[in-house]
């Protein structure tokens, strides 16, 4: 989410919600966070992938979560929303595909974008939760069922946001769905050092977020480096989250502070072309490199043999080319069985 979710009073009353005041700089704003059931699955996956003893750059993990050509096109569906709203979201999201990257987003009929059915789509957009959020890359398919949302635009089917919030939010959430993480968690940003965590823990524990320390850390701490994504920290990125100035020790002079970015930056376009190269062969080579890096890290780790096996299986679910849907489902089912890590 880029900004506070402000529902018009009439929609809020109809939904039985309290009305928030519109103040972009206020700390009293709802931040972007996955609902509990999805965050639990993401953390479970993270624990399976990186059990104690396994250390690998988060950039590798993000690279592995990028959609693979064997899964192209990347299908998108909507749980409701008028055809006009679905078209508007589609038109904005397609901006990601226009700058040299090979990102075949498929919305079905462009004049009446696809409605979600039991025939599972990759990215499943809905309007039924609070706030704005999306799962990361192939998690949208692997961890989210056909009848569940993988992306949310709070109640836009009743009252869509106005511009520029509408477009910047769609670009940001589709960035997540294409496997891009928050820029403030960029391995090389050091934004973690810029944040005033003592203040942030206290403030976000309160209305309207009610985040515990774990949730703050999950959403705000830096991701480890040594990844395959080589772009530098980009203050203009659509993936840089806008926090209130007092969240930073140095306020507005922090290098990580940004007023809302509203369009794709040059860095966003470059990174998209890097993660989704123009040819299938280049994509396969990038993936093979990431898998090899990951496998070496796991096999040379101090994790138990059971944990190493689990870790390598989890990577298979992250879309190894050639893994059939049946194999994927079977692997996922095995992974969901409780296992003792030692
Ligand atoms: Zn975000």
Task: Describe what this molecule looks like in 3D.
This protein is mainly α and 342 residues long. The chain is built from 13 helices and five strands. The protein has helices spanning 9-14, 36-49, 58-65, 83-93, 139-142, 165-177, 191-194, 197-204, 213-220, 266-275, 280-299, 305-317, 325-336, and strands at residues 74-78, 105-106, 123-126, 132-134, 151-153. Strands 2-1-3-5-4 form a five-stranded mixed β-sheet, with helices on one face. Helix 3 (58-65) crosses helix 11 and helix 12 runs antiparallel to helix 13 (325-336). The longest helix is centred in the last third of the chain and has 20 residues, at 280-299. It is globular. Zinc ion binds next to helix 6.
> Compute the gyration radius: what is it?
20 Å
Largest sheet, in brief, is: 5 strands, mixed
Q: In terms of per-residue confidence, which ranges show pLDDT below 50 for 5 or more consecutive residues?
A: 1-27, 225-230, 338-342
Give the fraction of residues assigned to helices. Answer: 25-40%
Structural class: mainly alpha
Give the cofactors and ligands. Answer: zinc ion
Q: Treating each run of at least 4 consecutive H or I residues as one helix, how many helices? A: 13
Task: Please provide the count of β strands.
Answer: 5
Give average pLDDT, whole number.
81
């Amino acid at each position: 989410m880029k900004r506070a979710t402000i529902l018009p009073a009439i929609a809020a009353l109809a939904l039985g919600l309290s009305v928030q005041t519109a103040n972009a700089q206020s700390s009293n704003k709802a931040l972007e966070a996955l609902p509990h059931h999805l965050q639990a699955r993401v953390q479970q996956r993270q624990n399976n992938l990186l059990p104690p003893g396994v250390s690998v750059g988060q950039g590798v993990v993000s690279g592995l979560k990028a959609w693979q050509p064997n899964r192209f096109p990347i299908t998108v569906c909507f749980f409701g929303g008028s055809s006009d709203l679905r078209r508007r979201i589609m038109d904005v999201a397609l901006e990601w595909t226009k700058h040299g990257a090979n990102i075949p987003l498929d919305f079905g009929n462009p004049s009446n974008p696809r409605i979600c059915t039991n025939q599972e789509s990759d990215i499943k957009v809905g309007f039924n939760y609070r706030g704005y959020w999306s799962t990361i890359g192939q998690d949208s398919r692997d961890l989210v069922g056909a009848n569940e949302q993988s992306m949310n635009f709070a109640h836009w089917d009743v009252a869509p946001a106005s511009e520029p919030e509408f477009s910047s939010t769609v670009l940001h959430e589709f960035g997540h769905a294409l496997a891009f993480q928050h820029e403030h968690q960029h391995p090389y940003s050091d934004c973690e050092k810029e944040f005033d965590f003592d203040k942030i823990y206290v403030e976000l524990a309160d209305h309207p977020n009610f985040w515990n320390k774990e949730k703050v850390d999950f959403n705000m701490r830096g991701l480890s480096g040594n990844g395959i994504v080589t772009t530098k920290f980009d203050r203009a990125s659509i993936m840089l989250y806008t926090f209130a100035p007092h969240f930073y020790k140095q306020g507005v002079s922090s290098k990580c502070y940004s007023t809302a970015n509203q369009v794709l930056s040059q860095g966003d376009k470059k990174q998209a072309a890097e993660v989704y190269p123009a040819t299938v062969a280049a994509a396969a080579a990038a993936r093979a490199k990431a898998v090899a890096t990951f496998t070496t890290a796991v096999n040379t780790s101090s994790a138990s043999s059971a944990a190493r096996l689990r870790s390598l299986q989890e990577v298979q679910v992250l879309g190894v080319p050639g893994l059939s849907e049946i194999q994927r489902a079977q692997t996922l089912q095995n992974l969901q069985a409780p296992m003792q890590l030692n």
